[in-house]
From TrEMBL:
EC number assigned by the record: 5.4.99.5
Stretch of the intact protein here: 1 to 264 of 360
Protein known as: chorismate mutase
Key words of the record: Coiled coil, Transferase
Source superkingdom: Bacteria
UniProt source species: Flavobacterium agricola
Top EC class for this record: isomerase
Upper classification of the organism: Bacteria, Pseudomonadati, Bacteroidota, Flavobacteriia, Flavobacteriales
Length: 264
């Protein structure tokens, strides 16, 4: 994979005075929930509205996402608020459906990045697309596997690429849900300075009280953006309740976060 400034060009469509902000619920739950959150985030620092439609859950039997109907709600959120929309894709069929509903940003989740067959299938389904494609780090602290996933997408001629750092799973008990292991994304950034790097403090911390601190750490390291889970009623969210913040909490965070601009 070449190191090319072309990789950064899609960021120019956003306000570069700010980090790129992606926010919205962990999961789309109901049409009303999706639209309420989207309207609260309209006219804020948020450029891209996220919601998971297909949810990779650790154990079976729980809420696994609303599926295709959620794409209709996301499309409506885009029409009503003007924000771009983002969702997670894990199979070629997810990609096909997301493209049918004109989803702007497709991200590959941490469990999927750990599976090269799945990433290749997604890359093939997206080949040549001009959609923005973001790839999270794999669940395990393996830079080569993350780079391999990026290469599969790059080789499929996907130009609007970026990466999301969401921390790494460990059996060790720490204050984090997923340990940041900052040296791994920093090494990635050193090797591919032109690849936009976004931090996911929600999945790193697993705890809404720590989200601002980790966001600031990422901005201090010159990350290009943040993806932050945001819900109107976080405690009653159907997934990842402990880490989601309210729209007001998110807006307040942006009053306090100190932005650091790229020195180029
Ligand atoms: C998510 O973004 O809700 C998600 C499932 O994240 P991850 O793939 O990082 O666990
Ligand atoms: Mn989540």
């Amino acid at each position: 994979m070449k190191n090319t400034p072309e990789l950064r060009t899609w960021l120019n469509d956003f306000n570069l005075e700010h980090p790129l902000v992606i926010a919205g619920p962990c999961s789309a739950e109901t049409e009303e929930q999706v639209l309420k959150i989207a309207h609260e985030l309209k006219n804020s620092d948020v450029s891209i509205f996220r919601a998971g439609i297909w949810k990779p859950r650790t154990r079976p039997g729980g809420f696994e996402g609303v599926g295709e109907i959620g794409l209709k709600w996301l499309k409506k959120a885009k029409e009503e608020t003007g924000m771009l929309i983002a969702t997670e894709v894990a199979t070629a069929n997810h990609v096909k459906l997301a493209l049918e509903y004109d989803v702007d940003v497709l991200w590959i989740g941490a469990r999927t990045t750990a599976n090269p067959f799945a990433v290749q299938e997604i890359a093939d389904a997206l080949a040549g697309t001009d959609k923005i494609v973001l790839i999270k780090n794999p669940v395990n602290p393996d830079l080569a596997l993350w780079l391999g996933g990026i290469e599969r997408l790059y080789n499929a001629d996907i130009k609007k690429l970026g990466v999301i750092h969401r921390g790494f799973s460990s059996y060790e008990k720490t204050k984090y849900r997923n340990i940041p292991e900052w040296q791994i994304p920093i090494e990635l950034q050193n090797r591919f300075p032109d690849l936009p790097l976004i931090c996911d403090p929600s999945h790193i911390t697993g705890n809404r009280d720590m989200v601002q601190k980790v966001s600031q750490q990422a901005l201090n390291l010159n990350y290009d953006g943040l993806i932050i889970e945001t819900h109107i009623d976080p405690d009653n969210a159907w997934s990842d309740a402990a880490q989601q913040v309210t729209p007001d909490h998110l807006k307040n965070m942006f009053v306090h976060l100190k932005m650091r601009k790229k020195e180029d």
